[in-house]
TrEMBL record:
Keywords: Phosphoprotein
FHA domain ranges (all copies): 22-72
Protein name from the UniProt record: FHA domain-containing protein
The keyword Phosphoprotein is assigned to this record: yes
PANTHER family: NUCLEAR INHIBITOR OF PROTEIN PHOSPHATASE-1
PROSITE patterns recorded: FHA_DOMAIN
Gene3D superfamilies referenced in this protein's UniProt entry, alphabetically: 2.60.200.20, Winged helix-like DNA-binding domain superfamily/Winged helix DNA-binding domain
Region of interest (Disordered), residue spans: 194-241
Organism this protein belongs to: Actinomadura keratinilytica
Extent of Low complexity compositional bias: 216-241
Length: 241
């Protein structure tokens, strides 16, 4: 078989990798389906970029992804590597040999320039993935629109531009791939919980996300998104007095 492929050890089935992104999981919509209860419906992606092949754990499975027995988030693959999705073992083949450290993550050296609103959209997109909840997925366009108090059509236009800026190819799970890329590049990260005095507590979650904008000037606080449209605690009382 020409080109990179994956051999499922239990069945011996050999599956060629797609030219760009191959999805792996237990769900019906994935490219390579593994009928194993330890595998998530969308478990991982195998990405081809030039001569390189790397695997990305989607972060949606309790059992994770391992390469040669080591748990990974994203890792360059070599010919003969054994990739375990949960307890399902697969062996990689047909990968050209390159002088590359397999522990090095393939990340773009420079993040694209982002507008203030694009930063807002990325923050809202990634917020669920930065929470403490398990089996989370990135926010939908409708949820982002509600969070930012804008129209869903406007959010979709921003997402289209962001797919182009981050070179996310067309296909299923583009939002998930965008969120993974943004988090892997370190553009979005969780903030520690904010301790609010008891008398000023509001029912909103104190955890927010911080976005580091490319070229951000030192000493200037990065942008944060809280709950839009909500006045500070006690503001209504001050207006009434």
């Amino acid at each position: 078989m020409e080109g990179p492929f994956m051999r499922i050890e239990d069945s011996g089935l050999v599956m060629p990798l797609r030219p760009d992104v191959t999805t792996v999981g237990r769900g019906r919509g994935v490219d390579i389906r593994l009928d194993d209860p330890s595998v998530s419906r969308l478990h991982a992606e195998i990405v081809r970029r030039g001569p390189y092949v790397y695997v990305v754990d989607m972060g949606l499975s309790r059992n994770g992804t391992r390469v040669n027995g080591r748990p990974i988030a994203r890792r360059v693959l070599e010919d003969g590597d054994v990739v375990s999705f949960g307890t399902a073992r697969c062996r990689m083949g047909g990968i050209p040999r390159e002088e590359v450290d397999p522990d090095v993550e393939l990340r773009r050296a420079v993040a694209p320039e982002l507008t203030r609103r694009e930063v807002d959209v990325l923050t809202s997109l990634c917020r669920p993935a930065l929470s403490d909840e398990a089996f989370v997925a990135p926010a939908t366009a409708r949820e982002i629109a509600a969070d930012l108090v804008v129209t869903e059509a406007a959010v979709k236009q921003h997402l289209l531009r962001l797919y182009q800026k981050f070179r996310i190819p067309e296909g299923a799970n583009r939002r998930t791939r965008l969120a993974n890329e943004v988090i892997a590049m370190g553009l979005v990260r969780p903030l520690p919980p904010v301790h609010v005095p008891q008398q000023n507590r509001t029912p909103v979650d104190a955890r927010t996300a911080e976005v580091r904008r490319p070229g951000h000037a030192p000493g200037h606080p990065p942008g944060r998104i809280g709950t839009p449209g909500r006045p500070p605690a006690g503001a209504a009382g001050r207006r009434a007095s």
